[in-house]
């Protein structure tokens, strides 16, 4: 609590001697005289705002009345109306005003305030020697929406010097919570304005012959005391300067500053909200009658958030016990209280729940693990990964028995009666024997009668039967770079079932064992398909060579017009071996970046 005017600028419309030296006279009569003879005589002097000893600026009203009791502000001579205004840098609580006049108090004046930095004004009190005559108001009756009353108590001409005008914002006999909304609305100000509407002479002036011609027609005020405090809603004991505000005087040790130094876990220039991490209950002003502080309560964020917000819905559903929701959970946590690990992370049981490293990233293979929102899934408690079909291991990084070829969709079932190589799919069980024609034309054994095929000799368009005509030059696999540059549309493991003479060319029916790669728009599946080798009549054989009953790795192109799978001299055709399969898979992944 202090004088809000101290250290701040008081503005007026005029100042005595602002242009040049100006004569003035005054009566220093501090009480009503008992007779004409007891009236003091007028005293006269000069004022000049450019000469400090003769200056009477507005700042003299807000200096210390104890250290500087004989300093005052004085208006220009002959001014009929004058305005005194105090502009504050932020909202303050205003409790009462004390004006000490050096001239006779005005016959009429108005006290006004603004709560929006001067955009709008409201009247607090009317002062007049005759309320009916000056304002058309009945003394003591509220006027208009503001409810301001008019009083004649402080409008008498005596004393001619030292007369006081006092205004109290709150009635002293009413007990009211100063931090409650009603009192705050009544006390809060950003600007205070006093309009001096009509001056009046000292009565002693009429008692002295010739005194009427003296220059006494001015306003003069010793002290302009605006008692109040910073607006802190009961959550601060003291205040500090508002950022960017410069006091009008150097010595401002008693100045009332406007920025609250908040307590009770509150924040803001006026402690008008809870601190960022203390929004578990709604903000409340302190109770000025009972002394209850109404501290803001901390949200339960387990050390993983810097702020939270209040949810009235959650607060009501929890029986008005807790309504905080943590904001922007840190350390890979999520949830209302940052109590859960995010997807793709799991809780480390060896670390406290409040530790920054309590949530560890799931160590899962991206190809073998189920994805959710672009992240791999693992058990949030144990970290165990959620594997795709046919995939196993704690990290989902290997195929289960009976599966092979870990890809983005998991592992594929082996096309064998037993197990197969997990990388190439090559059967490693002795029971998976196929029927095929040997080079001498003898038929081997098969454990699967549905795959048995008998071929007529005229269907075997190969170098084994027409070696004198075959001039086929086959592509090798010596250079991974050349393999990638070829940009094959498909890479398959096939078993040749039959070859049919179509006159100008041959159609080779194959069974697809494995699909190592295919163009994204193609839909090759395991089972029977047709390959179209280059015309055998021009080469003397199917070219490249495809022996019925044998297995090959075939890499070729698609005829984009017909959709046929073309096999020609640019295609790669090699007898199938497990080692060859591993080599091709390595080239596709590392050199061609097809996966």
From TrEMBL:
<keyword id="KW-1015">Disulfide bond</keyword>
<dbReference type="Pfam" id="PF00055">
    <property type="entry name" value="Laminin_N"/>
</dbReference>
<keyword id="KW-0677">Repeat</keyword>
<dbReference type="GO" id="GO:0034446">
    <property type="term" value="P:substrate adhesion-dependent cell spreading"/>
</dbReference>
<dbReference type="Pfam" id="PF00053">
    <property type="entry name" value="EGF_laminin"/>
</dbReference>
<dbReference type="GO" id="GO:0009887">
    <property type="term" value="P:animal organ morphogenesis"/>
</dbReference>
<protein>
    <submittedName>
        <fullName>Netrin-4-like isoform X3</fullName>
    </submittedName>
</protein>
<keyword id="KW-0272">Extracellular matrix</keyword>
<dbReference type="Pfam" id="PF24973">
    <property type="entry name" value="EGF_LMN_ATRN"/>
</dbReference>
<dbReference type="GO" id="GO:0070831">
    <property type="term" value="P:basement membrane assembly"/>
</dbReference>
<dbReference type="GO" id="GO:0043256">
    <property type="term" value="C:laminin complex"/>
</dbReference>
<feature type="domain" description="Laminin N-terminal">
    <location>
        <begin position="1"/>
        <end position="229"/>
    </location>
</feature>
<dbReference type="InterPro" id="IPR008993">
    <property type="entry name" value="TIMP-like_OB-fold"/>
</dbReference>
<feature type="domain" description="Laminin EGF-like">
    <location>
        <begin position="299"/>
        <end position="361"/>
    </location>
</feature>
<feature type="disulfide bond">
    <location>
        <begin position="387"/>
        <end position="396"/>
    </location>
</feature>
<dbReference type="GO" id="GO:0009888">
    <property type="term" value="P:tissue development"/>
</dbReference>
<feature type="disulfide bond">
    <location>
        <begin position="329"/>
        <end position="338"/>
    </location>
</feature>
<feature type="domain" description="NTR">
    <location>
        <begin position="470"/>
        <end position="592"/>
    </location>
</feature>
<keyword id="KW-0964">Secreted</keyword>
<dbReference type="GO" id="GO:0016477">
    <property type="term" value="P:cell migration"/>
</dbReference>
<dbReference type="InterPro" id="IPR050440">
    <property type="entry name" value="Laminin/Netrin_ECM"/>
</dbReference>
<dbReference type="GO" id="GO:0007411">
    <property type="term" value="P:axon guidance"/>
</dbReference>
<dbReference type="InterPro" id="IPR018933">
    <property type="entry name" value="Netrin_module_non-TIMP"/>
</dbReference>
<feature type="domain" description="Laminin EGF-like">
    <location>
        <begin position="362"/>
        <end position="413"/>
    </location>
</feature>
<dbReference type="InterPro" id="IPR056863">
    <property type="entry name" value="LMN_ATRN_NET-like_EGF"/>
</dbReference>
<keyword id="KW-0424">Laminin EGF-like domain</keyword>
<dbReference type="InterPro" id="IPR008211">
    <property type="entry name" value="Laminin_N"/>
</dbReference>
<keyword id="KW-0732">Signal</keyword>
<dbReference type="InterPro" id="IPR001134">
    <property type="entry name" value="Netrin_domain"/>
</dbReference>
<dbReference type="Pfam" id="PF01759">
    <property type="entry name" value="NTR"/>
</dbReference>
<dbReference type="InterPro" id="IPR002049">
    <property type="entry name" value="LE_dom"/>
</dbReference>
<keyword id="KW-0325">Glycoprotein</keyword>
């Amino acid at each position: 609590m202090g004088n809000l005017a101290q250290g701040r600028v008081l503005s007026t419309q005029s100042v005595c001697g602002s242009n040049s030296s100006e004569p003035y006279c005054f009566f220093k009569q501090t009480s009503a005289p008992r007779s004409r003879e007891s009236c003091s005589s007028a005293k006269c002097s000069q004022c000049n705002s450019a000469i400090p000893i003769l200056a009477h600026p507005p700042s003299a009203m807000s200096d210390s009345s104890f250290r500087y009791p004989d300093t005052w502000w004085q208006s220009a001579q002959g001014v009929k109306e004058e305005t005194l205004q105090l502009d504050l840098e932020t909202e303050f609580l205003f409790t009462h005003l004390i004006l000490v006049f050096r001239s006779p108090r005005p016959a009429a004046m108005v006290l006004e305030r603004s709560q929006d930095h001067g955009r709008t004004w409201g009247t607090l009190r009317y002062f007049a020697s005759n309320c009916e005559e000056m304002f058309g108001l009945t003394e003591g009756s509220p006027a208009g929406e503001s409810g301001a009353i008019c009083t004649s108590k402080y409008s008498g001409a005596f004393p001619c010097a030292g007369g006081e005008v006092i205004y109290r914002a709150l009635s002293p006999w009413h007990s009211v919570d100063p931090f409650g909304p009603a009192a705050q609305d009544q006390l809060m100000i950003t600007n205070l304005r006093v309009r001096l509407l009509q001056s009046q002479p000292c009565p002693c002036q009429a008692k002295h012959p010739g005194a009427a011609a003296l220059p006494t027609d001015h306003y003069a005020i010793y002290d302009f005391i605006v008692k109040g405090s910073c607006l802190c809603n009961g959550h601060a004991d003291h205040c500090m300067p508002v950022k960017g505000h410069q006091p009008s005087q150097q010595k401002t040790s008693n100045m009332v500053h406007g920025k609250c130094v908040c307590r009770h876990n509150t924040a803001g220039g006026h402690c008008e909200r809870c601190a960022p991490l203390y929004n578990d209950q709604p903000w409340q002003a302190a109770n000025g009658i009972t002394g209850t502080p109404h501290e803001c309560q901390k949200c339960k964020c387990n050390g993983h958030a810097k702020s939270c917000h209040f949810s009235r819905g959650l607060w009501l559903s929890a029986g008005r016990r807790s309504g905080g929701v943590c904001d922007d959970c840190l350390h890979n946590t999520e949830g209302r209280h940052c109590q859960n690990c995010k997807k793709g992370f799991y809780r480390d049981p060896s670390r406290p729940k409040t530790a920054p490293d309590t949530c560890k990233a799931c160590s899962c293979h991206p190809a073998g693990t189920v994805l959710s929102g672009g992240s791999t899934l693992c058990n949030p408690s144990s970290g165990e990964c959620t594997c795709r079909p046919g995939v196993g291991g704690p990290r989902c990084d290997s195929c289960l028995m009976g599966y092979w070829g870990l890809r983005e969709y998991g592992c594929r079932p082996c096309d064998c009666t037993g197990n197969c190589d997990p990388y190439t799919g090559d059967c490693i069980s002795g029971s998976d024997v196929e029927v095929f024609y040997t080079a001498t034309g003898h038929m081997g054994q098969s454990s699967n009668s549905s795959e048995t095929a008998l071929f007529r000799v005229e269907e075997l368009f190969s170098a084994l039967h027409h070696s004198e005509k075959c001039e086929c030059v086959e592509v090798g696999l010596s250079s991974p770079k050349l393999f990638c540059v070829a940009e094959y549309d498909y890479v398959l493991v096939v078993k040749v079932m039959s070859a049919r003479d179509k006159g100008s060319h041959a159609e080779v029916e194959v069974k697809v064992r494995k699909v190592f790669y295919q163009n994204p728009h193609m839909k090759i599946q395991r089972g029977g398909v047709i390959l179209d080798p280059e015309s055998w009549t021009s080469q003397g054989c199917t070219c490249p060579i495809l022996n019925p009953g044998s297995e090959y790795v075939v890499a070729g192109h698609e005829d984009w017009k017909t959709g046929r799978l073309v096999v020609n001299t640019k295609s790669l055709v090699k007898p199938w071996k497990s080692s060859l399969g591993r080599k091709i898979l390595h080239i596709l992944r590392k050199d061609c970046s097809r996966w």
